[in-house]
Design goal:
By secondary structure, the chain is of the alpha/beta class. Helix content is 31%, strand content 26%. α4 runs parallel beside α5 (153-162).
């Protein structure tokens, strides 16, 4: 079964990898193992990783964060050439005014604070359109989506309608303990899927790490020190 994997990089990082020692993730190894258990007939033909470049001036570690992402994307692209495709959007910054949070009080327009709004652009729409295009053109027998974002729902609905022969799998970028924190799989997405993995285990992440240095056509891509 020809299978393509579609990864929402932002969602995967902030919902599952942030705060762990597993950020240097070999996504090909991880999803091959998940599919080996979930659907042994599946063969991974493409992995499409959607993200947007980090900007040092708002990142937690500044320039180090920007360089870390660059190294990681270089490593992914070089690890298995032709398998993994990096598809990038961009961020925009604009000033806006939002209600301030005060314990015990509801939001109010009377209490507002000026802030910079940071928005990731194109990533979600590119993810959705690519899923639909690949399914509608008959390029794949199965699409497997790693996201818990309801923005993907319309694309999955259209795949179910226009390409009913294509199976839909979901791998939620959640930890097993997420449910105890009130974080659960998006029901709007799971309603469209033929099968769902509701979390990714720590042991799976630990077993699916890139080598510290990945050879590229230029200098090696190296695991960031703070990762």
């Amino acid at each position: 079964m020809k299978t393509a994997i579609y990864i929402d990089g932002y969602n995967l990082y902030y919902s599952r990898l942030q705060g762990t020692a597993h950020k240097w993730l070999d996504v090909a190894a991880l999803f091959r193992e998940i599919l080996r258990v979930q659907d042994p007939a599946a063969t991974v033909k493409a992995i499409k990783y959607f993200t947007a470049p980090i900007k040092a001036n708002y990142a937690r570690h500044g320039q180090a964060s920007e360089e870390a992402q660059t190294q990681y994307l270089r490593a992914l692209a070089a690890r298995e050439p032709g398998l993994i495709e990096i598809i990038q959007g961009f961020h925009i910054f604009k000033p806006t005014s939002l209600p301030t949070h005060e314990t015990g009080l509801p939001p109010s327009k009377a209490r507002r604070q000026s802030v910079w709004m940071i928005e990731e652009k194109l990533t979600d729409v590119q993810l959705a359109l690519t899923i639909y295009r690949d399914a509608a053109r008959g390029d794949v027998d199965q699409v497997v989506v790693c996201s818990n974002d309801s923005d993907v729902e319309p694309a999955l609905q259209l795949v179910r309608r226009d390409a009913p022969h294509v199976r839909i799998g979901l791998v939620m970028p959640l930890a097993p303990h997420a449910k105890g924190q009130g974080i659960v799989s998006n029901k709007r997405l799971t309603a469209q899927a033929h099968w769902v993995r509701h979390h990714i285990l720590d042991v799976e992440l630990a077993a699916s790490q890139l080598p510290p240095h990945v050879s590229t056509k230029k200098k090696p891509a190296s695991k960031p020190a703070h990762w």
